[in-house]
Amino acid sequence: MILYITGTFPAWSETFIAQELRLLAAAGVPLLHVAVHRGSGSPPDGLPEPVYLTDDQPGNDSSRGLSLPIPKIVRRQMTLRRHSAAVQRLTELVDEHRPTLLYAAFADLPGLLAAHVAHTCASRYAISVHARDALVPKFDDQFLYGAAESVFVCNQRVHDAFVHRCPDYLGKTQLVHHGLDLERWPMADTTFDPGPLVNLLFVGRLVEKKGVDRAITLVGALHEADVAARLKIIGDGPERDACQAMVPAGLQDAVEWCGVRPPAEVAAHMAAADLLLAPSRRLADGDTEGIPNVILEAMASGLPVVASNVGSITEAVREDTGYVIDPDDVGATINCLAGMLANRAAVDCKRYAARQLIETRFDAGRLIQLKVERLLRNQQEPR
Known about the structure:
This protein is of the alpha/beta class and about 375 residues long. The chain is built from 14 helices and 13 strands. It has helices at about 15-25, 70-80, 85-95, 110-120, 130-135, 140-145, 155-165, 210-225, 240-245, 265-270, 295-300, 330-340, 345-360, 365-380, and strands at about 1-10, 30-40, 50, 100-105, 125-130, 150-155, 175, 200-205, 230-235, 255-260, 275-280, 305-310, 325. It is globular, with a radius of gyration of 22 Å.
């Protein structure tokens, strides 16, 4: 049995976790899902309730907000002390169930707990890394990864950054994209044909990295250029109040704040939109995007994608599958949208090429088999 460790669950912005749990179960992998914190709402799509390590609400790292940088070893020790109850409960679960492998879905708190308990209980463990947890690491790499059986990375940029920082772990590092469950995201049988009002869609956490402020600025510039556009924003986060305050009074009717919506409603909003806008940015500390699942979902369903050239986005959004922009160059972005409206047949060509790319490189059913093979190999090989 694999003991699968996540952070806060459910978490609306981490649909790939629910997808991976479903696909692993469908592949016949025996799992015990363990979450550090209880999120809001019920587990998605009929997934069983995980075992929670604590009833505490998720919070910030205990060392966060201090004025001086903290060595990663010290941060690790402080975090383990702060989460001693979770350490104790996870240790009890390992003693009770004797899993063949601990699998941490992230390299921050779940990875730290998995590595620590694996060290103390002489258990096998593996870790997945994604974006911030790999690019802006909190804890010392040797402790997290030194004894890990496998390190899974979900995009090429993170893979390259990780092995550059940790070359000794190249042999245990494997690139496996999250991908999509294609049955859940069929291609829409439509053409690109916006009406007089262009419907833009933004889906994501309202944090600086996602660039929702850039989307709002773009809508204002489009109206100044006499292009009628409407922006729907799906999501929530710490930037919401600031971004709502930046919408001019004359633009209030052009920006709709939809909040967090379940996946089925996100799909319905995609079907009604003319394009997905993903104006992400790279932060000063190096944090940047992987490949947001919403981009793959839009590409699979036939919604054109206009996205920033940051992080690993261009592994999916390329010249033949979408539109890559610099969102801070508003004039160039407006020209891009004008070009899409002027040459709608070209947009349809990109839409179908995008779907083909998803089918060939981002089919989660096929990709999960790569992970299963690696995980089961770890269980079968002697230590």
